[in-house]
């Protein structure tokens, strides 16, 4: 089976000959050759005493995020010279328990497996004493963010990307042939100039690259969750979701990462109030926090163009830096990978990318759904749960959250009154999120 970068290279690189894609004889010869041992991956800060680097045709990736390392690996496999610039001196990402759809496996293959700590096969939805269960046709994955990032970093470096730690991005300028980046080396505090034709900003929701290239600041919301001990009888393959609209327009969740521990959290609109809501909810449900995790998550309020011209160079954004987050659940791992994949297509194909077009349609549909339910009251969620008949629940479980169009279409066919609820929500005063103009 091809690794995750091979398919992209074969399908999007304009100079890759069709005959090479179809030559089974060559594939057989390569399989018969002795398998080369993977080179040892050393993730550490590399020193450049000269302080000036110039690589013709280099793609610089700023930010050691999951989307950034994924993009770097795809570009390196396609033959590009790639430098990943990460401000930390050691690659030790903050730990965070996350839930993603099975689409991650389709995109990453083996590179993502090291981060998977559990699989989810059922959701239980609660509101105002009512409950509904949704069985998943394909399991969701519980992953550990730090493991995922390290695995993708190793994969990127193994494919040829150069990872340089201890490089803090400072500023960006255009030059005659492309771009000039200034970074500060943490080892000695000196500034280093790096020249590249293309820059990929993968440095999160507060992206310094986006700010330097002229993108507007993204709106963000706080995510707070507590690691808790699970009751002895808690089903390991089940996620529980509570809708409590007087406390959050989103929801509370409990995702089990093992048989004994899980992450209970929520997304709010104000950081301090969100933490207080979580503490009160923990007390109501009888949980004690073992530790807390948190982050600021970008809110998708409209498509962010992923490319800007700076002088003769091109700057792209991927992942959280581009606000590529499903606003229904504020999940951005899979959509960040899709955004990275689309940007790589654009870099290799002179700006063209079907993946970005599909991702935009998907994110816009999630925005429409969020606008319909954002101001739901408790009675509305109770009504929603009551309307989830067997056919509607089956439709919810048959398709992942990364196929919102199919989910919405099938649910509306099986339970048309849910569509009427959504239309009512769209017409409610104050139900629409702020959008970019």
Quick one: CATH class of the largest domain?
Alpha Beta
Q: Total number of helical segments?
A: 15
How many domain modules? 3
What do the pLDDT scores average to? 83
Kindly report the CATH topology of the largest domain.
FAD/NAD(P)-binding domain
| Unreliable sequence segments | 1-56
Give me the CATH superfamily of the largest domain.
Answer: FAD/NAD(P)-binding domain
Q: What would you call the structural class?
A: alpha/beta
Shape: globular
Beta-strand proportion? 25-35%
Give the distance, in angstroms, between the N- and C-terminal Cα atoms: 45 Å
Q: What kind of sheet is the major sheet?
A: 8 strands, mixed
Helix content: 25-40%
The whole-angstrom Rg is 23 Å
CATH architecture of the largest domain: 3-Layer(bba) Sandwich
Q: Please count the beta strands (DSSP E, at least 2 residues each).
A: 18
- Strands of the widest sheet, in order across it, are 4-6-5-13-14-15-12-16
């Amino acid at each position: 089976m091809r690794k995750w970068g091979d398919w992209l290279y074969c399908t999007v690189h304009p100079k890759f000959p069709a005959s090479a894609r179809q030559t089974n004889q060559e594939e057989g010869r390569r399989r018969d050759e002795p398998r080369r041992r993977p080179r040892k991956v050393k993730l550490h800060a590399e020193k450049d005493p000269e302080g000036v680097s110039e690589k013709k045709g280099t793609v610089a990736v700023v930010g050691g995020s999951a989307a950034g390392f994924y993009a770097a690996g795809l570009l390196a496999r396609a033959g590009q010279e790639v430098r990943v610039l990460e401000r930390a001196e050691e690659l030790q990402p903050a730990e965070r328990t996350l839930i993603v759809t099975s689409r991650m496996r389709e995109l990453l293959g083996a590179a993502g497996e090291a981060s998977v700590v559990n699989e989810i096969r059922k959701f239980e939805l609660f509101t105002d004493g009512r409950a509904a269960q949704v069985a998943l046709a394909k399991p969701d994955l519980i992953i550990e963010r730090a493991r995922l990032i390290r695995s993708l970093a190793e994969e990127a470096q193994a494919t040829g990307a150069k990872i340089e730690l201890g490089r803090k991005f400072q500023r960006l300028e255009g030059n005659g042939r492309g771009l000039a980046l200034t970074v500060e080396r943490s080892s000695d505090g000196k500034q280093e100039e790096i020249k590249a034709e293309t820059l990929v900003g993968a440095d999160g929701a507060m992206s310094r690259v986006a700010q330097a290239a002229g993108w507007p600041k993204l709106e963000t919301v706080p995510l707070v969750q507590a690691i808790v001990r699970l009751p002895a009888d808690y089903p390991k393959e089940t996620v529980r979701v509570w809708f409590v609209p007087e406390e959050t327009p989103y929801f509370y969740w409990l995702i089990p990462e093992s048989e004994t521990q899980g992450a209970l959290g929520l997304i709010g609109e104000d950081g301090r109030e969100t933490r207080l809501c979580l503490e009160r909810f923990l007390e109501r449900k009888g949980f004690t926090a073992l530790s807390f995790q948190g982050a600021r998550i970008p809110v998708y309020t409209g498509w962010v163009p992923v490319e800007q011209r700076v002088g003769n160079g091109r700057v792209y954004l991927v992942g959280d830096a581009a606000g590529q987050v499903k606003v229904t659940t504020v999940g951005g791992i899979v959509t960040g990978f899709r955004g990275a994949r689309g940007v790589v297509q654009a870099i290799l194909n002179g700006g063209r990318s079907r993946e970005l077009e599909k991702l935009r349609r998907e994110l816009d549909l999630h925005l429409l759904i969020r606008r319909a339910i954002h101001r739901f009251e408790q009675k509305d969620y109770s009504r929603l749960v009551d309307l989830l008949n067997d056919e509607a629940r089956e439709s919810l479980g048959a398709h992942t959250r990364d196929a919102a169009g199919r989910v919405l279409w099938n649910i509306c066919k099986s339970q048309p009154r849910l569509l009427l609820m959504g239309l009512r929500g769209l017409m409610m005063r104050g139900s629409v999120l702020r959008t970019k103009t």
